[in-house]
Amino acid sequence: MSTAYLYGMPSIRSILFIQTAFIGDAILASAMWEAWHQAYPHDQIDVCVRKGNESLFIDHPFIRHVHIWDKGGGIVRYNRLIALAKNLRSLNYDVAVTPHRHASSGLLSRFSRAPKRMGFGSHPLHWLFTKVVAHEFREDWHEVDRNHQLIREEVGFERSVMPRLYPKNSGPKTPSGVFGVMAPASQWFTKQWPENKWIALCDSLEETETIVLLGGKQDAEILSMIQQGTRHPNVMTFSDLALSESLALMSQAAWVVTNDSGPMHMASALNIPTVAIFCSTSPKFGFGPLSSKNVVIEAKVNLPCKPCGLHGHKACPERHFNCAQRIEVSAVSEALRGLA
Fold first, then answer.
1. Residue 186: φ, ψ to 5°
2. What is residue 171's predicted lDDT score, i.e. its pLDDT?
3. Under-70 pLDDT residues of the chain
4. What is the reported pLDDT for 1?
5. What is the pLDDT of residue 10?
6. Alpha-carbon distances, residue 281 vs 138, 142, 145, 310, 332 (angstroms)
7. Which H or E element spans position 210?
8. What is the CA radius of gyration of the chain?
9. DSSP string across 113-146
10. What's the rounded Cα separation, in Å, for the pair 266 and 250?
11. Residue 244 gets which letter from DSSP?
12. Spatial separation of the C-alpha atoms in residues 30 and 47, rounded to whole Å
């Protein structure tokens, strides 16, 4: 690691991190700017994320500015992409780093005109980067380890650091006493443990425990079905919170049970004890939980069709969905008790 000095003082560089993929990807990318800030606390760090994820990083203690790309609106979004690129170009970045492997992120990096532009060799526009790193799937690597290879030489850390989020002090009123969070929804059907399993899990917990069912507006129906289906007397649902409010709520939880989805990565960045349920996907891809206390639950039967994809599907390709149906409620409840 080296630091440039000007007139005896550390030089202050302007650094841009671009990750405009989904919420989990943005959270895991935070490990990179945590590492950079540790190495170069004087540098000014900006991030670029997709619209909807920005509230995770606004009021961040060392992020200067959050750029937002609104991907909605069909072809009109490319007008917004051009406007964003022009804005980035005007800010004179010294370094641009993108772990995102879509063409848009490469274009944003290039148009930033940063002298140093780092990205993966599997990026479709990899020739636009000044430093290209191989994107490797290693059995002992998490996604944060893959991303760290982009900046490893720059920061001087051989190992990655943990992703981290900084919830606001203000948030929704939390339940009194100890409570846990269940995040039962996913945008991918094959990543989502079935509703009847979540109902049975609620039923299996002590009545003195408070359960918070957490999700977005699009998850209101499944949360309501679980709350109405369980006989547990202390179940609350939150589906109308802003992302920052969900983060603040989760930060107060004693535990989190979640699918392989965004809330799992939120729990990792908050270091909340986590039970992570993997249906069609596998933690071997490098997207498992990172909390210091965590348990991964998968079906205990041999399924030659699992994993059937990196991101899941809208329906089970084999139509039996055994990767979810064969996960026993008792295995999840026992894992949860073991976190205490």
1. -155, 150
2. 65
3. 1-10, 170-171
4. 39
5. 62
6. 16, 14, 19, 6, 17
7. strand 210-214
8. 21
9. T-SEEEEETTSTTGGG-SEEE-----TT--HHHH
10. 8
11. H
12. 9
